[in-house]
Amino acid sequence: MTTQAKKIKTKPTWVDVKEKLADIDRAGLIQLIADMYAADKINQSFLHTRLYLGDDPLDAYKKRIHKALFPNVMGRNSDVKISDAKKAISEYQKAIGLPGGMLELRLFFCEVAMDFSREYGYAEDGFFNAVYLQFKKVVETLGKISGDQMEDTLDRLYDLRNMASNVGYGLEVEMGDLLAEANPDDGRN
Question: pLDDT, tens digit, for every residue of 96-109?
Answer without folding.
Answer: 888 899 999 999 99
